[in-house]
Every structure is written in structure tokens, then in C-alpha cells.
């Protein structure tokens, strides 16, 4: 028995569900890792004698690690395969989180957080490439968008767990807090056991028989390589092809919009208590406000995830940058307002930036081909972390020297930069197969005919 049905058109099955859980679990841990330091810093800084410079440096250390890990993880994932790298990140989470319990200086903590960031950087390209190469076309956008939902869920969990461990853990509470990531890393490692290699990657390496066996195992005995609809002819692409032809433009678009969407978010997460304190939210207002705002980030991502197919990638991205930027602008202008107003504006930002957040893994996985997909995701993730690390490092210095008003205006300016770049460069890919979305040829334009959208502009990729 045979079928001409593409694997991208099959119904969403149990394998897809399990693979989604395995991949989004990595982003949950990533959100936990990158957010836990923001809560622990206030307690550990006096014990380790950290000044504003070292607080910013340690908060940015994991982001610097992501810069390195994204490059390494992307290249190794394309070279060695998705399955092998799938276990590297979780193993590193366990080892280097446990070691943080015994740190005695800011230098040691910086080094361990940096290596943990490398693990996060490795996780981004492998988890997303693995997922997109198996998913049906209709579920591709929402499932990739769910990665960011779980990132913020991990961040929210970090705030809750950290508050509990700092409260009940005594003078070592911050050590238990930083080491708690090991638990989630171990669980992630265990649930990924049994995951098969990506048949698209195997085919790109000329291993057709192995690819066909996995296709039959996942989709059924009547499926084969003919159902994969993957290009097997023509020039083999390398990562440096990103810098040439249309791929250079795509890399620039993804790197810039990703940077503009994560920089204010990471800065807020790393120093949420200090930012809220500067906005005159203290005590219980600050503690519960941090948790509430984090939960609103989750809600915003969930709402955006539901719109990624209906509203479309381009329109969702443009509107997200526009309205979230206005919320930050108002936070700067009304920084002396009542506590409820400040929380409402912060909550509005958290809800409205969701569109840009969920598209961080959708766009790069759709508009680059299999041979360089993981490398492209890792490369653009790394580039985005330069701005995120710089922004995070500068937050305590900006609050100290420029004040909260100027800090919020800077965050708004970064967000509006993302709006401009998205208006000029964002394509629409929601109705395309992976081959069509990644193609540079005229026969498969990235921006097919569609209804006019707010701030509409023809795609530069046509």
C-alpha cells in the first residue's frame, strides 16, 4: 500500500505530541535558568560582595553563554545530527546547576552561569529543528510558538520556586535556588530517551535507508521517502551561505527582530525586583507583581500562539511590536503613577509582546532549509543575545545613573526598532510547506498574495 500524502499533511498524532513535549520542555528549563538569577541576586549579592557592575555581569553571563552555545549548537546539530545534541543541553543543566551550590565568589558564579548559558544556546537550535522537521504544516506555527509559552512558564515557575526556597532555605536559600535547575534538567534528559533521528537530516547526509525506516516507524508502513517532499538535488548549502543571496537578508531580519523582542524582556527579568522598586512597587507589591507579570507573559504567548495561523506571522509581529512599544513608552512617561497603573502598564506590555516572542522560533525554522536550519537558528539566536546581554548588563547602571524614566524610554526605542524592521522585512509563511518557505526561487515566493494588513508593505524576499 502507498500514498501520495505528504508527511506535512498527516493528522497530528501521538508521536507529534510526545516530540512537542520533549522540545518545549527544553524551553521551560531555559526560561527557568535565565529567570532564577533575577530573584536570587538580591540575596546572594551581599554574601558574595557584588557591586552593581558584578550584578549586571552575572545577570548577563548566561546570555553571553547563549551567544557561544548558539553558534556551537547550531553547527554541531547540522553536522552531527539532531538526536545526539538533544541530550547535551539537559546533561549540562544538571552538572553546572549543582556546582552553583558551592560557589564562593562572583567570578565562580559568572563562570558557571556562562557555561549554563552555553547549554541554553545549544538547546535553541536542536529543539526547534527537531520539532519543525516532523510537524504537520497546520500545527507547525502553533507548536513552534508554544516553545515560548513554555519559556515564560519556566520563568514563572522560577519566581515561585525561588520565593519559596529563599523563604525556607535560610542563609543557603539562594544556593538551593540556583541549584534547583538540576531537577528539571534531569527530568528533561529522561523524557527525551527514545527519540529518533530527523529523517530530513538523515536524507541531507545521504542516509536514505535510515530516513525511510524512521518515516515508516513514525507515520506508518505505507509512507516512505516520497512522502517527505524534501529536496534531494542541487547544491549543498553551508552555514556561510547565510551571508549570501537571499539568506543574508533573512538572517538580518531574524537577528534584528529577535534582538529587539528579547532585549527589554531579559532586562526586566534579570532585574524585575529593582525595576519594580524604581517604579515605586515595593514589598508584597513587588513580589506578587513579578509573579503576576510573568504569568501575563505566559497568557500573552498563549493568545499569540492561537493567532499565528489565523492572523498570520507578519501581521502578528508588526502589531505586537507596535502596542508593546507604546506600553513601555507610557511606563516611562507615567513612572510616578499609582501602583495599580504601573502594574497595568507592565501587564499590558507582557500581554502584547507575546506575538514577537512566539515568532522567534517560527520564522528562522521556516525560512531556512534543512542543511542549515539548526545553524541558522543558532546563529541568529547568538546574534540576538549580544543586544540582550548588553541590555541586561546596563540595566543596573542605567537605573543608577539615568533613572527609571530614561530606562523605559530606551526599552521602548528598542521595541520600535523591531517594529520598523518587521514592517520593512517580515514575510508571510503560514500557508507554505517547509520547502516553499525556505526556497529562494521565484516558483515559491516567501510572501504569497494575501489580504492587506496594518502597515502593509511588499515582502523584500520576492
From TrEMBL:
**Which PROSITE patterns does this chain map to?**
MFS (PS50850), SUGAR_TRANSPORT_2 (PS00217)
Q: Name where it mostly resides.
A: membrane
Q: Which GO terms describe its cellular component?
A: plasma membrane
Q: Known SUPFAM superfamilies for this protein? A: MFS general substrate transporter (SSF103473)
Subcellular localization: Endomembrane system
Q: Give membrane topology per the record.
A: Multi-pass membrane protein
Keyword list, A-Z:
Membrane, Transmembrane, Transmembrane helix
What molecular functions are annotated in GO for this chain?
Answer: carbohydrate:proton symporter activity
- Give me the segments passing through the membrane: 24-46, 52-72, 84-103, 109-132, 144-168, 174-195, 252-273, 285-304, 316-334, 340-362, 374-394, 406-426
Record-stated family: Belongs to the major facilitator superfamily. Sugar transporter (TC 2.A.1.1) family.
Which protein, by its recorded name, is this? MFS transporter
Amino acid at each position: 500500500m502507498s500514498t501520495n500524502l505528504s508527511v506535512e499533511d498527516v493528522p497530528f498524532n501521538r508521536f507529534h505530541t510526545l516530540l512537542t513535549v520533549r522540545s518545549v520542555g527544553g524551553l521551560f528549563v531555559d526560561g527557568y535558568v535565565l529567570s532564577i538569577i533575577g530573584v536570587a541576586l538580591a540575596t546572594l549579592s551581599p554574601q558574595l560582595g557584588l557591586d552593581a557592575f558584578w550584578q549586571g555581569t552575572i545577570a548577563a553571563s548566561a546570555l553571553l553563554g547563549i551567544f557561544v552555545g548558539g553558534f556551537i549548537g547550531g553547527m554541531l546539530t547540522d553536522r552531527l545530527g539532531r538526536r545526539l545534541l538533544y541530550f547535551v543541553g539537559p546533561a549540562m543543566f544538571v552538572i553546572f546547576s549543582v556546582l552553583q551550590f558551592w560557589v564562593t565568589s562572583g567570578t565562580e558564579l559568572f563562570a558557571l552561569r556562562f557555561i549554563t548559558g552555553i547549554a541554553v544556546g545549544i538547546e535553541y537550535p536542536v529543539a526547534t529543528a527537531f520539532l519543525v522537521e516532523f510537524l504537520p504544516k497546520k500545527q507547525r506555527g502553533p507548536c513552534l510558538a508554544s516553545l515560548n509559552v513554555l519559556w515564560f512558564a519556566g520563568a514563572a515557575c522560577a519566581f515561585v520556586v525561588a520565593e519559596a526556597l529563599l523563604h525556607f532555605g535560610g542563609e543557603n536559600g539562594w544556593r538551593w535556588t540556583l541549584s534547583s535547575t538540576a531537577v528539571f534538567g534531569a527530568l528533561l534528559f529522561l523524557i527525551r530517551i527514545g527519540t529518533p533521528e530527523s529523517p530530513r537530516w538523515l536524507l541531507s547526509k545521504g542516509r536514505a535507508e535510515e530516513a525511510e525506516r524512521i518515516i515508516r516507524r513514525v507515520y506508518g508502513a505505507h509512507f516512505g521517502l516520497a512522502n517527505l517532499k524534501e529536496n534531494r538535488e542541487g547544491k549543498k548549502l553551508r552555514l556561510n551561505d547565510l551571508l549570501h543571496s537571499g539568506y543574508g537578508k533573512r538572517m538580518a531580519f531574524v537577528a534584528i527582530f529577535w534582538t529587539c523582542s528579547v532585549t527589554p524582556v531579559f532586562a526586566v527579568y534579570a532585574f524585575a525586583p529593582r525595576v519594580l522598586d524604581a517604579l515605586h512597587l515595593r514589598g508584597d507589591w513587588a513580589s506578587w507583581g513579578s509573579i503576576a507579570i510573568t504569568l501575563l507573559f505566559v497568557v500573552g504567548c498563549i493568545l499569540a500562539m492561537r493567532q499565528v495561523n489565523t492572523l498570520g506571522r507578519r501581521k502578528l509581529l508588526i502589531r505586537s511590536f507596535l502596542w508593546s512599544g507604546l506600553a513601555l513608552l507610557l511606563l516611562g512617561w507615567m513612572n510616578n503613577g499609582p501602583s495599580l497603573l504601573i502594574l497595568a502598564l507592565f501587564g499590558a506590555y507582557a500581554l502584547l509582546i507575546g506575538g514577537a516572542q512566539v515568532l522567534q522560533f517560527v520564522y528562522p525554522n521556516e525560512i531556512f532549509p534543512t542543511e542549515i536550519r539548526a545553524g541558522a537558528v543558532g546563529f541568529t539566536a547568538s546574534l540576538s543575545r549580544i543586544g540582550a546581554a548588553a541590555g541586561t548588563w546596563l540595566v543596573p547602571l542605567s537605573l543608577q545613573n539615568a533613572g527609571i524614566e530614561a530606562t523605559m524610554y530606551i526599552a521602548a526605542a528598542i521595541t520600535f526598532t523591531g517594529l520598523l524592521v518587521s514592517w520593512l522585512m517580515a514575510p508571510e509563511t503560514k500557508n507554505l510547506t517547509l520547502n516553499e518557505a525556505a526556497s529562494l526561487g521565484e516558483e515559491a515566493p516567501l510572501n504569497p498574495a494575501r489580504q492587506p494588513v496594518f502597515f502593509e508593505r511588499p515582502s523584500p524576499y520576492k
